[in-house]
Design brief:
3-stranded mixed β-sheet; chaperone; single chain; 4-stranded mixed β-sheet; zinc-finger; heat shock protein binding; 377 residues; HSP40/DNAj peptide-binding domain; DNA replication; Helix Hairpins; metal-binding
């Protein structure tokens, strides 16, 4: 079954603002959420479809890529919209962090998130994933490199080894919710669950919290790591580094780090897929008579290029295998395309003017030229 356009799914225009997109998704999510429609596969499908659309359109970079290239452009940019949506859909709290005022109380989201992310282990929630935007030179993205980055994250507290409890302390069952992590209250026909205010939904409390981290088990620290940039990576792609995100509270597992690549434009080259394009100037004499010139490739090599006699301005010449390596097969490379730009002199010496006049007299000049067909340009 073909995918529907994301704007159509949310019922918004392509010029919709972020607030309009969020509002449209909120409405659909409340209507089709599986907890509200148990056993309704159609509602579940609509909910997943709406969530996938929101995940893309709420992200400015993904939205720009989708607007320009459609679904194909989203491949490899992350889970939503690239065929790997299940990861985003599984983590209820991650997706609906912005809508906690609705979903946290209506569907009891706190306990669901805790049981999945921490395996049901009381008080030990997994750490948050982190994002790092890394700007790299054009050539680094093309040929790969190792880059050191520095960022701030939550790390396990050294005083309590991440447990959150002072030495000799531990966890006790929360007496408010009796370990359930939720409290329920009646509201009309509904029984609404919400995270326990005493334990924050963990089901347990620390009897003697660590003084260094106030019982959270984590402290802020600066982290330096080296990131391997694979050859051929494109602007907007991300690199997944497991277990380099925030440490989990009270000894919970760490999150992951996602490094998003921002490629700095090159002064002379432009990338299209794995091919690169540049413009090379030649003189009118070289274009008319033909010549052999030396052209510098992206990796710094000098290659001889033959200019055929009678070359027209704008002609494209191709150098096979001088482009960018393929991301998953560096043995394959794209091509390099050179657009020839014929430079007409703006100043002529007396001798040069005389020679050009001789050429004009010899070749003749069309005083009434006809337009060129656009297809020939």
């Amino acid at each position: 079954m073909a995918k529907r356009d994301y704007y159509e799914v949310l019922g918004v225009s392509k010029t919709a603002s972020p607030d309009e997109i969020k509002k449209a998704y909120r409405k659909l999510a409340v209507k089709y959420h599986p907890d509200k429609n148990p056993g309704d596969t159609e509602a579940e499908t609509r909910f997943k479809e709406a969530t996938e659309a929101y995940e893309v359109l709420a992200d400015q970079q993904k939205r720009q890529t989708y607007d320009q290239f459609g679904f194909a452009g989203l491949e490899g940019m992350g889970d939503g919209g690239a065929g790997g949506f299940s990861h985003a859909f599984h983590d209820f709290e991650d997706i609906f962090g912005d809508f906690g005022d609705i979903f946290g109380s209506f569907f009891g989201g706190g306990a669901r998130g805790r049981s999945r992310r921490s395996g049901g282990e009381p008080g030990r929630a997994a750490g948050a994933d982190l994002r790092y935007d890394l700007e790299v030179p054009f050539t680094t993205a093309a040929f790969g490199d190792k880059v050191e980055i520095e960022f701030t994250k939550h790390a396990a507290c050294g005083s309590c080894s991440g447990s959150g409890a002072e030495k000799g302390g531990g966890f006790t069952t929360c007496t408010t919710c009796n370990g359930a992590g939720q409290v329920r209250r009646s509201s009309g026909f509904f029984s609404i669950a919400s995270p326990c205010p005493a334990c924050g939904g963990s089901g347990s409390v620390i009897d003697n919290p660590c003084k260094s981290c106030s019982g959270s088990g984590v402290v802020q620290k600066k982290q330096k790591i080296k990131v391997t940039i694979p050859a051929g990576i494109e602007h907007g792609k991300r690199i997944h580094i497991p277990k380099q995100g925030d440490a989990g509270k009270n000894g919970g597992p760490p999150g992951d780090l996602y490094v998003y690549i921002v490629v700095r434009p090159h002064e002379y080259f432009e990338r299209r897929g794995n091919d690169i394009y540049c413009a090379i100037p030649i003189s009118a004499a070289q274009a008319a008579l033909g010549d052999e010139i030396s052209v510098k490739t992206l990796d710094g090599k000098q290659i001889k290029v033959k200019i055929p006699a009678g070359t027209q301005n704008g002609k494209i010449l191709r150098l096979r295998g001088e482009g960018i390596p393929h991301l998953h097969n560096n043995a394959r490379k794209g091509d390099m395309y050179i657009q020839v730009r014929v430079q007409v002199p703006t100043r002529l010496s007396g001798k040069a003017r005389e020679l050009y006049q001789q050429i004009a007299n010899e070749e003749g000049v069309d005083k009434n030229p006809s337009p060129l067909a656009l297809k020939d340009l």
